[in-house]
Design brief:
The longest helix has 8 residues. Helix content is 8%, strand content 38%. By secondary structure, it is mostly beta strands.
Length: 153
């Protein structure tokens, strides 16, 4: 952690300790959510801003004791796959959730089919029903080839 003396104004006399919050992504079909762990912070001490240059800027500071303050600043570029106008944030229980909706959502059915391995039906003896069924006999006449009785003459 880096300690820096404060500047002028309300921050005069403050000593800042910068820290890196733990962050993790939760990826889903329609959106991705960034979880930023901010233990000890309150909602009023955290700021989330989406810039015109497609960057999410997350910052915050809180007083530790006396003139000691803890602060952080994170900047996350927004991919062109996401709708930067619909980004939302929620702070709950020391975790900041930043939700980024995707512009193009893949067809849910296609996505699920691609993720699932092919299902093969089988029995306890390891043979599939197709393997157990006898192949159609080539010597058995088909319905269109049956004789009408001409052979009985």
């Amino acid at each position: 952690m880096e300690a820096k003396p404060g500047a002028t104004g309300a921050a005069a006399g403050r000593v800042y300790e910068d820290f890196e919050p733990k962050m993790e992504w939760e990826r889903e079909l329609g959106d991705d959510t960034l979880r930023v762990h901010l233990p000890g912070f309150k909602k009023e001490q955290v700021r989330v801003r989406v810039t015109s240059s497609r960057v999410i800027r997350i910052s915050g500071e809180r007083q530790l004791s006396g003139d000691r303050w803890s602060r952080f600043l994170k900047e996350i570029p927004i991919s062109s796959d996401f709708n930067h106008k619909e980004i939302s944030a929620k702070f709950d229980g020391g975790i900041l959730y930043v939700k980024q909706p995707k512009l193009i959502v893949p067809d849910a059915a296609k996505q699920q089919e691609q993720e699932k391995p092919p299902v093969e039906s089988s029995t306890l003896d390891g043979m599939t029903p197709q393997e157990k069924a006898p192949p159609p006999s080539e010597s058995a006449p088909r319905a269109s080839e049956t004789t009408t009785g001409e052979a009985h003459r």
